[in-house]
Amino acid sequence: MRRTVHSTPLHGTCTLVGAGPGDPELLTLKAVKAIQKASVLLVDDLVNLEVLEHAQPSARIIHVGKRGGCKSTPQAFIEKLMVSETLAGEHVVRLKGGDPFIFGRGGEEMESLRAAGIEAQVINGITSKLARLTQLGAPLTHRDHAHGVVFITGHAKPGDAGTDWRQLARTAHDAKLTLVIYMGISGSEHIQQELLHGLPAHTPAVVIQNASLPHQRHAVTTLGELRNTIETHQLASPSVMVIGDVVRGVSALQSPAVSQNEEHNPEPMLRAIQA
User: Fold this and answer.
1) Cα–Cα distance, 268 to 95 (Å, whole number)
2) Is residue 5 a part of any domain in this protein?
């Protein structure tokens, strides 16, 4: 009688976990369980450190921060570390801000793991860009104002020409799309000037920094005043820029007078929101 033997992997496990926009209460239950089980955590720079309170006391926590303009851990090194720790038998959690598959380079990390014979799990998180606008009381889509939403990076890969912002602006105008721009602060002047070729200067915009955290700040403005608003209020990374008519909902919530007059009076306003 032949017996079927099921082989057991000799290595550990690896899970890519989205830590959400920042507020530790926005972690999913599945994410908490994965963090509690981990023996090694590779932690992104944008993860709220309060999230790590769920980790075992014996867990090794390795910070592998990546932030534009700052000293960063090379992506290739992070991927090698994920592979080596998993093959050494560890239960690895790669902890990322937001969702690992929305501008989190999770796809590249999965490819490296599969090349090493490791099938990783993915636990999604609330993407920070969704949380940032909705927590201000405005939607990303609306039947009357926005038929869709585009999530796009403002920071192209070295050697890549990047986004055709003029074409995107024309498409957004014709199709009534909300533009959500990640990692765009440093290139905001160029982005603004290019978008103005397809969108009116009075198009509502908002810049949101440190979403869902107690020190969250946001400035409601217009596309024509976007760069001036960022400089005036010294808004910095991590921030997101949202451009489109749905932003009028933020203005209406915070100050009806500004919302009614913003097309003719683009004076930006800065609001501090307590989480």
Assistant:
1) 35
2) no
Q: Are residues 227 and 268 in the same domain?
A: yes
Active site residue 1: no
Residue 93 lies in domain: 13-126
Tokens of 188: 């905001």
Distance CA 120, CA 122 (A): 7
Establish whether 44 is a catalytic residue: yes
- Amino acid of residue 215: H
User: 64 and 199 share a domain?
Assistant: no
Given the residues 44, 96, 129, 241, select the one marked as catalytic. 44
Chain-centroid distance, C-alpha 79: 20
Q: Are residues 257 and 186 in the same domain?
A: yes
Residue 26 lies in a domain: yes
User: Is residue 1 a part of any domain in this protein?
Assistant: no
Of the residues 66, 176, 245, 269, which is catalytic? 66
**Residuewise pLDDT in 10s, the chain (275 residues):** 455 444 445 689 999 999 998 889 999 999 999 999 999 999 998 899 999 999 999 999 999 986 655 678 999 999 999 999 999 999 999 999 999 999 889 999 999 999 999 999 999 999 877 777 887 888 999 999 999 999 999 987 777 878 999 999 999 999 999 999 998 999 999 999 999 999 999 999 999 998 777 788 999 999 999 999 999 999 998 889 999 999 987 765 554 333 333 333 334 434 433 33
174 among known catalytic residues = no
Question: At 258, which CATH number?
Answer: 3.30.950.10
Q: How many domains does the chain have?
A: 2
